[in-house]
Amino acid sequence: MNYVDGFVCAVPTANRDAFQSHAANAAKIFKEFGALSVVETWGDDVPDGKLTSFPLAVQRKDDETVVFSWIVWPSKSVRDDAWKKVMADPRMSHENNPMPFDGKRMIYGGFQTIVEA
After folding, report:
1. Distances (CA, A) of 71 to 3, 9, 52, 95
2. How much is the pTM?
3. What SS3 class is residue 3?
């Protein structure tokens, strides 16, 4: 089954266009190195929680929007090899493709697919 990397971050709402450009550039590179698909979503119905929520998890500020993203890989081994290449690729450097958000508040992880319908 496929392997999935998931991400949640808070992006300054004013940086939507810059984020979209950053994400589109990164998606091309991920796909070049084996990703099956890359999805970036811009929150428009992401409620604040009292105990848990996406906004709480990424410490969203009033002028920020929650972004939920995922990359689908054919396997964990393809993903592991690809990430090494992505991190070494000069197109992904901060100088060439700066992150228009605070990466320290991004949460992410790799997930084994157990159900796909």
Report:
1. 8, 15, 24, 23
2. 0.94
3. strand
